Amino acid sequence: MKKVYLLLALLSVSVFAQKKFDNIQSEKLGEERRITIGLPASYEANPNKKYPVLYLLDGDYLFDPFLGAVNYGTYWDDLPEMIIIGIHQNKNDEREDDSTYDAIDGVPFEKGAKFFEFIGAELVPHIEKKYRTAPFRIIAGHDVTAGFINFFLCKDNPLFNAYIAFSPVLPTKMEVRIPEKLAAVKEPFFYYLSVADGDIKKIKEPIEKLDSNIKIANNPLVSYKYDLFKNTTHYTQVLHAIPSALYQIFESYRPINSEEYNNKIVVLQSGYADYLENKYATMSKNLGFDVPFRMSDFKVIENLILKNKAYDELGKMAEIANVTYPKAMLGEYEIGLMYEKMGDPKRASKKYQNASQMEPIGDLNKDMMYDKIDEMNTLAKQTK
């Protein structure tokens, strides 16, 4: 039985390497604030990689559900690895005090103003100084804290790129202010909104008005999703909403699936390599950080090129490979494959020889290159 528990512990560590706690002494709050930090499994092993950051208000109870959803998504490579920061707010009425705003002016007030400054002026700079962060920040909250996160959106330069609001208790005039702000966005932006059919009327009606106004604003740069969860309560809907929100924000990150392949790629007459390049360029632009080409996506496009005998496009595939994996044999292999398919085994052999001196990647290795060299040399002799 002890071995079973040890195995489970090791598995949990391998999925998400570090979950730790920290205390930040805040001058803005005049007190110490506790946070939970989740670092991705690759954080220590990949010292050059930077990660998007997910900030959670109500981190006491939102951290673990978000952690589980992120673990699941990263396992299948549907979500990127990310740093998760959970802000503790469970002491007395701390979450209510942290979310205080002026009912007339609709701005953070008293403790709420201090908490607002704590996040923007202390917490975010602290995390970005201490950890390797990509320039893509997400913030999430539930009811009063979900309403509060919108104050960051209403700044001249919003602090976060993506907002996740579960059944928000909306501050004054937010049903109008949020859509106005989203309508003016000039860069890719993400907003997720959810409500339960079991929410009280006082919460639901402003949310429904907000949803309507955002849809009227209809800014193509804003990725917006609204969920109304049936047969749920104010609290149970959160477990439905977390994966929905994450998969909405990172929709462009996902690898090529059967729907994309059948509806967008197979129907192309040409430009398969361009499609792959544009997919990842759009992905990086939307998310604000570079996403390396997946070998699985690369092979999908390579196979389609071969199937359609569009061999000249293998040259473009080689260019893509050399940018993303400059030390790997992939680029030289693609050029060799192009020459092979075009009936030039002599030049193909030279490229495979070059590839054999470079680093293996995916299913490409030195033995495979040597086999290709022998095959091409035999073909070259036969064609003399």
From TrEMBL:
GO terms for molecular function: hydrolase activity. Residues 1-17 form the signal peptide. Keywords: Hydrolase, Signal. It holds the Pfam family Esterase. Gene3D superfamilies: alpha/beta hydrolase (3.40.50.1820), Tetratricopeptide repeat domain (1.25.40.10). InterPro entries: AB_hydrolase_fold (IPR029058), Esterase-like (IPR000801), Mycobacterial_A85_antigen (IPR050583), TPR-like_helical_dom_sf (IPR011990). PANTHER family: ENTEROCHELIN ESTERASE-RELATED, FERRI-BACILLIBACTIN ESTERASE BESA. This is Alpha/beta hydrolase. It comes from Flavobacterium hydrocarbonoxydans. The lineage of its organism: Bacteria, Pseudomonadati, Bacteroidota, Flavobacteriia, Flavobacteriales.
